[in-house]
Amino acid sequence: MRYKEKARGKSPDYTVLSNFIVLEGLDGAGTTTQLKLIDEELSRLGVLHYCTSEPSDGFIGKIIRSILEKKIQALPKTTALLFAADRNEHLNNPEYGIIARLRREELVICDRYLFSSLAYQSERCGFDFVLSLNRTFPLPQHLIFLDTPIDLSQKRLTHREEEDIFERTDLQPRILSDYKMAFSLYNDSDMTFHRLDGSRQPELVFQDFWNIIQTLPMVKV
Ligand code: TMP
Predict the structure, then answer these.
(1) Closest ligand 1 atom, CA of 55?
(2) What confidence tens digit (pLDDT) does each residue in 193-203 have?
(3) CA distances, 98 to each of 18, 39, 143 (Å)
(4) Using an 8 Å Cβ cutoff, are 216 and 19 in contact?
(5) Which residue's alpha carbon is at the smallest distance from atom 17 of ligand 1?
(6) Is residue 219 part of a domain?
């Protein structure tokens, strides 16, 4: 077993952030489309919200984008450290960070979070190393996994001019298996896990997504 702590049967206490929702999925699974749809709907309803993504558009996120686009090269562990550093800024920036926004009663929806690090960085860096970088970050109240078959996800990516370093088809089965291992870690936590069938039309996926979101308290702008 690659995840040693689970094997020892420990069950750490995790902090869960209310009104924080995370979308996850393989490349091409449809998380970006769903983020756009929820942003439009919440804006239409005048709900105080913040739709964001990781890597973030902060200064570390920009370095990560250059690595993903192969403009600069970094060792796998450097990349894993950068993702964790970006996450720390994204969460904790006193003015614009996710936690500050939740305190201001914004509903925060994020495309990718620490589960992506566990799924994407583990193959090259080892699951335990990636977990050690991410274990202190709080969990979202709802984690939504868009379960889209690998072949369909890959097909949706074919229009892109250049693939990023993790989009290769041969990497996807391993990423999926590391996603599953990552999710199983948090079975005992208070985070609610949802698996949505991402192979359907975006509007149908969105109906399920919306059913989750509408259970949350919404503050009007
Ligand atoms: P995206 O903006 O199209 O979702 O691409 C981001 C890429 O970065 C995607 O291939 C997943 C990858 N990624 C990681 O490898 N680790 C992480 O922690 C995050 C947030 C993303």
Answers:
(1) 20
(2) 999 999 999 99
(3) 11, 16, 15
(4) yes
(5) 117
(6) no
Closest ligand 1 atom to the C-alpha of 54? Answer: 20
pLDDT in tens, 76-95: 999 999 999 999 999 999 99
Q: What is the tally of structural domains in the chain?
A: 1
Given ligand 1 and candidates 89, 120, 154, which is best to mutate, with the most ligand atoms within 8 Å of its CB? 120
Partners of 50 in the β-ladder: 108
Task: State phi, psi for 145 to the nearest 5 degrees.
Answer: -100, 120
Q: Which atom of ligand 1 is nearest to the CA of 64?
A: 8
Both tokens assigned to 15: 């902090």
Cβ < 6 A, ligand 1 pocket: 27, 54-55, 68, 83, 112, 116-117, 120-121, 164, 166-167
Q: Does residue 2 sit within a domain?
A: no
Q: What range does the domain containing 90 cover?
A: 19-213
186 is written with which tokens?
A: 């948090």
- Ligand 1 midpoint to CA 167 (Å): 9
Instruction: Give yes or no for residue 221 having a pLDDT over 80.
Output: yes
Q: Give a yes or no: residue 93 inside a domain.
A: yes
- In-domain check, residue 30: yes
- For residue 56, give the CATH number of its domain: 3.40.50.300
Peptide bond into 55 cis (omega under 30): yes
